[in-house]
Design goal:
Blueprint (H helix, E strand, L loop, with lengths): L1 H30 L20 H38 L3 H18 L6 H20 L3
Length: 139
Amino acid sequence: MKFVKNFPKLILATFFFIFAKNLLQIFFGVIFNSTNKQYDSLILINPLNFSDSTLKLYILYFFLYEMLIIGLSVYLLLYNILFFIIKRFGNKLSLQILYLLLIYNVSIIFFNTPINFFCILIVVILGVLNWYIFKKIIK
């Protein structure tokens, strides 16, 4: 019953995670002048490298692909698993960070992407945000 009661909050936490992940990718991409001219979930994004039409395409990509397609299928499933792990072992900061690092490692193996220090830093920051969100709104 607690899962059903917390499901809308879990959806909200999932969308907050996606939004924060993309903001951090853009922040670190601009600060460290990333040369990437593509948009991907596993890289730093620098909108200064995009033309005007490409930036509009990225925003469309963010809302359609990241928020709706991947958000409601993959991220929500991962958050459901995280919810049950947190219910079983408690909301520990180390557990949140390790869970996201595990997902990052699986995704770099699956997508054959090189490890990026700043993406690991983003994962750690997102782990802290997840811990705080689960502490405050998911009970």
